[in-house]
Write a structure and sequence with these properties.
- This protein is 48% helix and 7% strand.
- It has helices at 3-14, 30-40, 49-53; strands spanning 27-28, 56-57.
- It is flat.
- The model has no long low-confidence stretch (mean pLDDT 90).
Length: 58
């Protein structure tokens, strides 16, 4: 096994398992979030936490 595969396997071990939608306690307006990011000309990941939080619903 080469070095890249070893690093990949190590990263898999430290990666948390996915969260199911049924486990989510808050709802997110994903469509609105994506539209907002597109209008700003950035990716959703590049938005600030404050901007992302504004799309949370209780």
């Amino acid at each position: 096994m080469n070095g890249q595969m070893k690093k990949y396997n190590q990263s898999l071990k430290s990666t948390p398992s996915p969260i199911l939608l049924s486990q989510m306690t808050k709802k997110v307006n994903i469509r609105g979030l994506m539209t907002y990011a597109k209008k700003k000309g950035v990716k959703v990941a590049d938005l600030s936490e404050e901007e992302k939080m504004s799309f949370l619903k209780q």
